[in-house]
Amino acid sequence: MSDAPGLLARWFRLRDRKTTLRTEVLAGATTFAAMAYIIVANPAILEHAGIPRGPSTVATVLTCVFGCLLMGLYANLPVAVAPYMGENAFIAFALVGIGWEKRLGSVFVAGAIFLVLTLLGLRTWLARAITPSMKHSFAAGIGLFLLFLGLWQTEIIVGSQPMPLKIGDLGETKVLLAIGGFVFMMALLYWRVPAAILLGMVLTGTLGFALGEGAVPERIAAAPWSDEYDLGRIAGHLDIAGVLDINFLPILLTLVLISFLDTLGTLLAVAAEGKLLDEDGNLPDMHQPMLVDSLSCVFGAVVGTSTSGAYIESATGIREGGRTGLTALTTAGLFLLALFFIPLFQPLQEMRYAYGPALIVVGFLMTAAFRKIDFDDVSEAVPAVATVALMVFTVNIANGLTAGMALHPILKVLTGRWRDVHLGGAILGVACLGYFAFGLPH
Fold first, then answer.
1. pTM for the full predicted model
2. Cβ partners under 8 Å of residue 399, min gap 6
3. DSSP 339-377
């Protein structure tokens, strides 16, 4: 079955997973094409936190390379790693009045906590503490949060700070381009076109340029260590001591929980797509990709970017036949190559109408989680809806997540379902109550 050299085939178990070297490479290239938009979107979003785009772009790419390499070599899974969409928005928009050094410090500390929990085997325990409806409410809420940010950044809706809101100028070229880009991306996704989001961004940007709303790349290639991209401006400048404060507890809790839930959901989803789950619906050796995720979070914070983890776009490569870590290694190699061609991506960073629709698309896809919330059970539905509502209406993910986790055990007790409360859920509920008791919401 395998066309790879003997050692390579044995290391990645190509024969066991019924794949070939050629299939794995093509799958890795497909995954890269599907998620390369992160090179544009992540630095553009983090710039709102004060992190300069040039170094931030290098940090984004290096984190992708690091995570994909580890996932391929250690976990042997066809899963790519990159800074999360959602968590980057939380870092950029939700942490008001905090310097970017402290924001990166919070990512580092949360990643370190994540790592310790993984090494102690507590992440599986915590996973069982959160009910399915609550897990899906986190995804749905973050999806709406992303969708809102995309609408606001593209000026489809406008407002200050960013509320109150109203419909933007629908006759403006950039707004029409954003709407068209979103519709086109969704059509491509419907027809399962590989790299639908990236292709939509490129075509929208190209059309925008033709209409006078963009600029051509000044260069094709550039050294990633040049002054413009000097990683030394942000790498290692994180403020760890500044986040070791009670006021940062909800922020750390939020980063740990949403990272944990993103990783868990993504891994199970893509593993199911690749038929890698066992007969009980579990992913064998789950601790390996979890460890990769934890280390990627810590690495990303050190070099200067937001929380990272397994990417759902990995499913595109898996649909192309990717079954082993060779897929992730191929993706890592392409990200490494992209590091030297950053100028080609830079014009898109100035085009909100091109990358904004990607936020709307990803947010829309995440709202599918609404279907999996148990609305027939008040003790599940109320905390879930509270989670979503407060995330979106206060434009703050931490407010929604902590409200839902605090309400969940309370409603279970009040409805006589106290036996359904997991010890871990009770602990998380008390911690989240402290968030409100000490006046930390914002």
1. 0.79
2. 390, 391, 441, 442
3. TT-HHHHHHHHT-HHHHHHHHHHHHHHHGGGGGGS-TT-
